[in-house]
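Case study 2.
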Amino acid sequence: MNKLFFTLSTIVLLSACKTSKDYMASSSDDKTFYEIVKKLTKHNSDENAAAALPQVYRVLQQKHLAIINQHYNSAELNHWDKVLASYRSLQQMHEAVSNTAAASLLTTVDYTNEINTVKLNAAEAYYNTGLAYLQNANRADARTAYTLFKKADSWKKGFKDARAQMDEAFERSVVNVLINPIQDNSFFTNAGWGNAVYNYANQHFQQNLVRDLGGQYASRYPARFYTEWQVNQQQIQPNWVVDLVLRNVDIPRPASNHYTRNRSKQIEVSRDTAGKPVYQTVYATVNIQRLSVNARGQIDINITDVDTRKNISWDSVSDTYNWEEEIATYTGDSRALTNSDRAMLNNNYNQPRKEDILNELYRNMYSQVKSRIANQVDW
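Prediction:
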């Protein structure tokens, strides 16, 4: 048994040991370097790890420096990310060795200055490119400039006046949006509906959209929102126009459905001479009338560029409104009725008006319309 234990222990020990040659076989992988450092931290007398550490470091250093040289002078702005990534890998290896037993086995390079230089050069490159885009008199390039200035500030916080340039780019990219009242193509106002529905559509829906999107002081989006009255009063030149069209609205008459339920129940009517309860079965028929309304509506959203007269987007949202209520009468013995039957007996129809149904459809579709408009003006 002792001989077997010794043999197994030897196999495990040998399999856990790596030769210098084993380390070099995977020397182009950064994790090999950290594996060696970890090994030396636990067993600083490991000769294979000690011999491999300087060699692996040189291989990895040459690999990352080659990547840096390859990308450093590239014309692509995103080359700075690749350069910084390699410098950070080298710096992390330097920091992993410093203040450990492995530091006596090799001398690593501190790349802090190089990293700071890369960040400064990247910020400068993004900033200058942003200035070039900002010189163009169109909103699309102003948006690009905003992104570039933001990137410059992320490379080096507080770089030059990048934040001020971001504000300038944002303002130049702002679009003035006129939101028109809903156009009713469902002919409700011509079908005896009166002004209640029309006024809701014309005033509340449009004005709520303008207000909730931020109006003329919107800051969440690069856009300002106006009603036609505000545009005329303030002499605003809109860049985009949002037309809303109500169509395919179906609010049918309530559907009526009659059905019956037969009820029976055993009730105690007396007790016999032995004191045991005597039961009698009583019966009732519940006559139920159900009224229901299943309405639907649709709003088309069309956004147009005023200058080019080109369509920016077309979208459509829809929703449904369902109402149902039941009342009942009965014949027979009331003692057979359930609690739900009794509740229906006391019901009175509270049927919604057509105006109420349409207003509910508007409320249900409102958030969808608002979201569609916001998505178009947002970056």
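The longest strand covers residues 277-305.
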